[in-house]
Amino acid sequence: MLQRMHEFGITSRIVQAVLRAAHTNRANRVLSVNLLIGQLTFLNPGQVKVAYGILTKGTLLEGSELLISQNPGLVECQDCHFLKKIEMPASPGITGFSESLPLLVCPHCGGKGTLIRGKECQIEGMSVC
Amino acid sequence: MNRITDATGAVREVQIGVDVLDDLRKLAEANRRLLDDHRVTMIDVMGSVGTGKTAFIEQLVQSLKEAQRIVVLNGDLATTIDQDRILQHGVDSIQVNTGKECHLDAALVRNILDGLDLATLDLILVENVGNLICPADFPLGSHRRVVVISVTEGPYVALKHPHVFAEMDYVIINKIDLASIMGVNISKLVQDLATVNPHARIFQTNCRDGTGIPELIRELVGVTKDA
Fold first, then answer.
1. What pairing do the DSSP bridges indicate for beta strands B12-19 and B41-46?
2. In terms of CB atoms within 10 Å, which of A128, B15, B16, B217 comes out highest?
3. Do A127 and B195 touch (CB under 8 A)?
4. Under a CB-based contact definition with an 8 Å cutoff, are residues B113 and B31 in contact?
5. pTM for the full model?
């Protein structure tokens, strides 16, 4: 069983949502699923894929490919409306997160920023037959 | 991958457009509306294992139990240790054991809310699972999100965990009586927190002897009740 259960719970929701859509669309099989993950979530794409492989066993989704794309974060300054992109490496590594992230301070005017993108876990679509 | 089609069907692309995290956020908003309808305030308390979340909640309970009808939800992987501590104050507590799950989520909290008589309550204090990472992704519908950190976690916690602090309304720096022993410069820690999230209100406490608690309660609960 997976030791890290954070992705397991969310992936279980993903699988349920895809299964519902597959039934609605009278799919015989699901071949692939496109998922968009925001980089400011705590979802690790590799872990989501592992959980997906386990959770889809014995369903219409068994053997389907989970295609994950990642969305960088975006912070908008409430004062000057400066947009700051928060980009992270696709997968964590030795050099990946070596700098701290002053997430909500505007680099332009020092104002307060609000997260407007990067918290997604969006099932965009699927290929079925 | 090999695309295998059956005899009747060609490959079709189907749009889904469902965001599972957003669904949970919407469920959290529904929880919030339910609480608002019953004029119940909910406060979500997060933080690593051992920072003083339970001690903080005990302080709140002790100060507020005469004036408010309170229930505490204690989230933990296992045991009823925290619940037992709360029950000693004569306040209701519900132990939520998540087994392996590293956080509470809005769906789980909704199940609990549905089992409570909200008309008989004023305040719900949620002690999230001890974890400085995952709970930040899962709003519950609370009116205030609070993280308790402590000087025994060292001086760099704000910079090392920027994401959780970016989500918080309140940051409580606990165990300030141990700052000099631990060699932690609290003003530097406050400065780091302000860099990560200038919106959050920062309080300094010693939840064992109650230092800093009255000011905190005035803002945390006083403001909420008047809102």
1. unpaired
2. A128
3. no
4. yes
5. 0.85
**CA B122/CA B206 separation, integer angstroms:** 26
Place of tokens 């908008």: A76
The partner residue sitting opposite A122, judged by closest CB among B19, B100, B199, is B19
Q: Are strands B201-204 and B170-174 parallel, antiparallel or unpaired?
A: parallel
Is B14–A123 a contact, with Cβ atoms under 8 angstroms apart? no
Give dist(CA B125, CA B75) in Å, integer. Answer: 11
Residue of B nearest to A119 (CA): B21
Measured between beta carbons, which residues in chain B are less than 8 angstroms from residue A31? 1, 3-4, 11
Q: How many whole angstroms separate alpha carbon A38 and alpha carbon A117?
A: 7
Start-to-end C-alpha separation, chain A: 31
**Contact at 8 Å (CB) between A31 and B3?**
yes
Q: How many residues does chain B have?
A: 227
| Res. B6 pLDDT band, cuts 50 70 90 | low
Task: Tell me which of B2, B3, B8, B14 to substitute to probe the interface with A (most A C-beta atoms closer than 10 Å).
Answer: B14
In contact, B25 and B179? CB cutoff 8 Å: no
Instruction: Give dist(CA B74, CA B208) in Å, integer.
Output: 19
Residues of chain A in contact with residue B14, where contact means CB-CB under 8 angstroms, are 21, 25, 27, 125-128
User: For the domain that residue A112 is a member of, what is the CATH number?
Assistant: 3.30.2320.80
Q: Which domain holds residue A66?
A: 2-128
Q: How many CB pairs under 8 A join A and B?
A: 122
Q: How many domains does chain A have?
A: 1
3-state SS of A23-69?
Answer: HHCCCCCEEEEEEEEECCCCCCHHHHHHHHHHHCCCCCCCCCEEEEE
CA separation (Å) from B127 to A50, A79, A87?
30, 34, 32
ipTM metric: 0.86
pLDDT of B131 reads 86
pLDDT exceeds 50 at position A96: no
